[in-house]
Amino acid sequence: MIVRLSGEGQYELPDADAERLNELDNQAVAAVEAGDEERFRELWQQMLEIVRRDGRELADDELVESTVILPPPDITFQEARADFSGDGLIPD
Fold first, then answer.
1. Alpha-carbon distance 63 to 73, whole Å?
2. 3-class secondary-structure state, position 25
3. Which of 43, 81, 85, 86 has the smallest set of CB atoms within 10 Å of its CB?
4. How confident is the model at residue 10 (pLDDT cuts 50, 70, 90)?
5. Per-residue pLDDT band at 91 (split at 50, 70, 90)
6. Cα 54 off chain centre by
7. Cα 27 to chain center, whole Å?
8. Strand pairing category for 68-70 and 2-5
9. What percent of the chain clears pLDDT 70, i.e. is strictly above it?
10. What span, in angstroms and rounded, lies between the C-alpha atoms of 49 and 26?
11. Is 26 helix (H, G, I), strand (E, B) or coil?
């Protein structure tokens, strides 16, 4: 899975992490829908950590289509309300 982290770059994420990232995404959607900003922040940080820790950052000249585009790390809760809805950011 290729993940673009807005403002940072692209990461190639191992398939084993894709399911965990999707689970966190679904939980983040639920937190946003419940208006629970603290829980959303916890989940968002976990998502970022998985991408940065386990992903291989692609070189700027390595052009690959992103499977998923994540918002910037400093997303506000108000912005998250628009992005984290319905099925979330990551398709099931």
1. 22
2. helix
3. 86
4. very high
5. low
6. 13
7. 12
8. parallel
9. 98
10. 16
11. helix
For CA atoms 67, 79, 87, 55, give the dihedral sign: positive
Secondary structure in 3-state letters for 37-83: HHHHHHHHHHHHHHHHHHCEECCCCCCCCCCEEECCCCCCHHHHHHH
The string of pLDDT tens digits covering residues 22-65 is: 999 999 999 999 999 999 999 999 999 999 999 999 998 888 89
User: Is residue 22 within a helix (H) or strand (E), and if so which, with residue range?
Assistant: helix 15-33
51 and 58 Cβ atoms separated by less than 8 Å: no
Residue 85 neighbours by CB under 8 Å, 6+ apart: 29, 32, 33
C-alpha–C-alpha distance, residues 83 and 62, integer Å:
27
The per-residue pLDDT for 30 is 95
The pTM score is 0.89
Bridge partners of residue 57, in order along the sequence: 11
